[in-house]
Specification:
The chain has 555 residues and is of the alpha+beta class. Helices cover 47% and strands 6% of the residues. It has 20 helices and 9 strands. The strands form 3 sheets. Strands 3-4-7-8-9 form a 5-stranded antiparallel beta sheet, with helices on both faces. A two-stranded antiparallel sheet has the order 1-2. The protein has a two-stranded antiparallel ribbon with strand order 5-6. The structure holds fe (ii) ion (FE2).
């Protein structure tokens, strides 16, 4: 047997070697706390975490594809230098030979496109049903919503719609800190973000239609509820809902609850699992490149103390942006975030709801859980074997402990094979299928910046009496910032280096190899099943297709 649990080592010398190896690793991977001194990161990035030349070559080739579009970008830049405003939404396609999503340019302001992005966009985990257990939040006056509902929904009445799970909300209360502390960039240009609550109705065709948006949390005369009847003010309100979703997507769902949760898991894996521990061998292919990605100056300050350039695109000032990430971590719960728990707690199980993230996600979740269970059963003969494995117990402790990885809700120790398998499956799902959904649609949706800006650069409507023309709407996005944002998302999302299910089989024991082969076969079957589903869906959804899911958080 090549791969051994610590208790399976046969002699004192190998036991000592194993311990000394881990002590060296613990010296190399020490904890520091960033983002309002809250989120655990590796203090100094070890060289072995920096990808080899193949990775950078792929990144370079990726950028080369933008070259044919450079003359067009130059013309836009000259116009920007001459102070000419953007004239139409087509001007926001900065790379005409590699456009983000041509179909979106002419229809991104439609209500149904807004509704679709809740279920196939970059942040499909905010939507929740309004039910008797989870009614509308009190800060949104229900009588007013009933009135709006009666006006814009012919199909059914409000009470029936609630019992049938046809009323949904998005609530961006988490962004209060950004709203209170907006950023300023480019010589003092002010950034804007609000904390909207959006109400959506589920149509008979399964598509969500927004019917009401309150831009701030507290109800009041100066905080009206905008509806589809409000013309350009409605379009502006939807833009502010998109700004909020764009901030929530990166600062809460993506950077914090994927990239930095994985950082703590990787730290623990390097520090506590010997290289031939069967779970180290299994997890290693999922843990590559992430620490290096997380240590770029996207949000972190550089050596001179300057905030990361990408972070500046977000609507709060630096302290508020990083505090928002910190809050996203302290309010996170690893167990509650497991795919089925998340679907259940948001009550988004109505089968009539067109929700491919949910429907394809359950295939991937079940396949990965089954794979993890089979693998754990090969490695551990009993629950006692799990309890006795001091390395995996130290791994769990490292991830959750306050003086270590600080991931809330991570099991402090494992008492059974089932508990361990569930957690390992959850980790693999998080860095493969879930990250695929949250990361790789960025060029498609926020990449076309007017659709989902990370800040607005003009104030939100100041009430129902406000005037706003088409030029007013264009002012939300200055050209230079939009071009920068589009370039960044292009680079990040057009770049993959591996696929789910890729494992170096030589490093596994024969029984484990069989488990991997079965998993690969199951992934192939799921890919076919999703292809089949997509051929008859109103809009195809590819991000859960194993054919394009990367094997980890590699970018
Ligand atoms: Fe990512």
């Amino acid at each position: 047997m090549m791969n051994k649990l610590p208790q399976q080592e046969e002699n004192r010398r190998t036991v000592e070697n194993r311990k000394n190896y881990l002590l060296r690793r613990q010296a190399q991977y020490q904890y520091a706390y960033e983002y309002a001194n809250t989120i655990a990161v590796v203090r100094k990035l070890p060289c072995r975490e920096i990808p080899g030349p193949g990775y950078w070559l792929r990144g370079g080739i990726n950028l080369l594809q933008l070259i044919p579009s450079l003359p067009s970008l130059l013309v836009t830049y000259m116009r920007y230098l001459l102070g000419k405003p953007m004239e139409s939404y087509h001007d926001y396609i900065f790379y005409p030979f590699s456009p983000p999503n041509p179909a979106l340019v002419d229809n991104f302001q439609q209500d149904l496109i807004f509704g679709l992005q809740r279920v196939i966009g970059v942040n499909p985990v905010v939507l929740r049903a309004v039910t008797s257990q989870h009614p509308l939040p009190q800060k949104l006056p229900e009588s007013e919503i009933q009135r709006v509902f009666a006006k814009y929904v012919d199909e059914t009445d409000y009470a029936t719609a609630i019992t049938q799970k046809r009323v949904y909300i998005l609530d961006y209360a988490d962004l209060e800190i950004l709203q209170r502390n907006p950023g300023q960039i480019d010589g003092g240009r002010k950034q804007y973000v609000t904390t909207p609550i959006v109400v959506l109705f589920l149509q008979a065709d399964g598509i969500l239609r927004p019917i009401a948006i309150q831009l701030y949390q507290d109800a009041g005369l100066d905080n009206p509820i905008y509806t589809p009847n409000d013309g350009n003010l409605w379009l502006a309100a939807k833009t502010f809902a998109q700004v909020a979703d764009g901030n929530h997507h990166i600062l809460v769902t993506h950077a914090t609850r994927i990239h930095y949760v994985m950082e703590a898991i990787i730290m623990a894996s390097r520090r506590q699992l010997y290289k031939s521990h069967p779970l180290c061998v299994l997890l290693n292919p999922h843990l590559r490149h992430t620490l290096n990605v997380n240590h770029q100056h996207t949000f972190l300050r550089d050596r001179k103390g300057r905030p990361g350039r990408y972070g500046e695109l977000f609507a709060g000032d630096y302290d508020a942006t990083t505090q928002c990430m910190a809050n996203g971590m302290t309010s996170f719960d690893f167990r509650a975030s497991a795919f089925p728990n998340d679907i259940a707690s948001r009550e988004v199980d109505n089968p009539d709801l067109f929700y491919p993230y949910r429907d394809d996600g359950v295939l991937l979740w079940n396949a990965i859980q089954h794979f993890a269970t089979e693998y754990i059963d090969v490695c551990y003969q009993s629950d006692g074997d799990v309890a006795e494995d001091c390395e995996i117990q130290a791994w769990a402790h490292d991830i959750g402990a306050q003086d270590r990885g600080r991931i809330p809700g991570f099991p402090a120790r494992f008492a059974s094979r089932q508990e361990l398998a569930e957690t390992i499956g959850h980790v693999i799902f998080l860095c493969t299928a879930f990250h695929s959904c949250i990361h790789f649609n960025q060029y498609k949706y926020p990449g076309f910046v007017p659709n989902m800006p990370h800040s607005a650069y003009a104030p939100p409507p100041a009430g129902k009496g406000a005037e706003m023309d088409a030029d007013g709407l264009l002012k939300f996005q200055p050209a230079f910032r939009a071009a920068y944002s589009q370039t960044w998302t292009y680079f990040q999302t057009n770049f993959t280096v591996n696929r789910i299910g890729q494992y170096p089989l030589r490093q596994f024991d024969p029984a484990a190899r069989d488990v991997i082969e079965r998993f690969r076969k199951q992934l192939q079957e799921i890919a076919g099943q999703i292809d089949q589903r997509n051929s008859s869906r109103p809009v195809p959804y590819g991000r859960m297709n194993p054919r394009i899911i990367p094997n980890g958080v590699t970018v």
